[in-house]
Amino acid sequence: MVRLNVDLIAKSSSCSKKKGNCSLAQYLKKLTHLNFSNKNIEEIDDISACKNLSVIYLYDNHIKQICNLSFAYNLTHLYMQNNSITHIENLADVRKLCKLYLGGNSIMVVEGLEQLSELKELHLEGQRLPRGEKLLFDPRTLLSLSESLIVLNISNNNIDEIRDLVVLRNLTRFSATNNQLQDVQELEVVCSQWPQLRRMDLSGNPACHKPKYRDRLITVCKRLVDLDGKEINELSRQFLINWKASKEAKKKMQDEQLMTAQITHPFPDSGMRSFL
């Protein structure tokens, strides 16, 4: 079993080249970036001597558990995509973390992030889920990320609804491609509560083939500049907004006329019934 530990770091070429005349302890203490991607690592051992780590690259390994990172108070970026992780855990002490990459693992529930009040990006695309299962979200985690999170990637996770994500009101980029989203009205309701949203990609979902799908989302997302990889023309958006307002005004007028007619003639004669 390959473990990420101080000995492995010491044996790495980067260490031997950069250490120079300083001691190993001094080198480890100064280390801010650690790159052990694609090294067949299965476990994170004690690396607490690297007290000043800010970026860790551990993608494309065989790691099953996020652990032994509680010492990394300065950690801001953690790349652990394409491993064998099943749970998001043991990150409560890494409170400066702002970017977390966990795509391509086997995570079933988005949880355990309640203490990460500075997390800005969360990447969870392509989880290896059991057949028929979908990626789920712990409401406590979503609520804790409601102020900080601006980028969310949940593509290719068999997701069929996103109503729980409505609390993420500061999202600017949202990617949920190749899922099972079908309800355009739900998408309208949720996206209308994301006033900062500028880029969204929902391509590969059944909803994309529904009538007026693009028009409806462009209308409710006032700051959206790109939908499904296609730029949004501001003149087109304004035309759609005006068209929707005109349609709603016309419907309101018709409803008022109908109500007035019913009040004026509560018991319509045959002629009035034919008119109605």
From TrEMBL:
CDD domains xref list: PPP1R42 (cd21340)
PROSITE patterns cross-referenced by the UniProt entry: LRR
Keywords in alphabetical order: Leucine-rich repeat, Repeat
Name of the protein in question: Protein phosphatase 1 regulatory subunit 42
Lineage, top ranks: Eukaryota, Metazoa, Chordata, Craniata, Vertebrata
Superkingdom per UniProt: Eukaryota
Species of origin: Synaphobranchus kaupii
